[in-house]
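Predict the 3D structure for this chain.
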Amino acid sequence: MAYNPNKELKKYYGIAEVAEQFNVAESLLRFWEKEFPNIKPQKSGRGVRMYTKEDIEEVRLVYNLVKIRGMKLAAAKQVLSKNRKAASDTSEIIERLQSIKAELQEISRELKEL
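Done. Predicted structure below.
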């Protein structure tokens, strides 16, 4: 299930919910927290991670650079440090195009059934 930026977000998401949104393992999110300092979910008194909308946006940027565009971690860090705005804009464009592609594929399947 791809991340949906238009979905209304509640105040906090647990790590399992965020992992499911991006179809990644919870351990990968914990690893990214160590590698990318802008991903910093709050922790409850029991150590449960609570991701805010801003945290999820940071995960989205890293996800698009590493998983979608195939960058190595060092390259993703460099992109985020040099031009965060361009990375964010590109990430949004990629997600919109993926959404359009999915819609077109669904239309194509429906037309084949006619």
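Residues 84-113 form the longest helix (30 residues).
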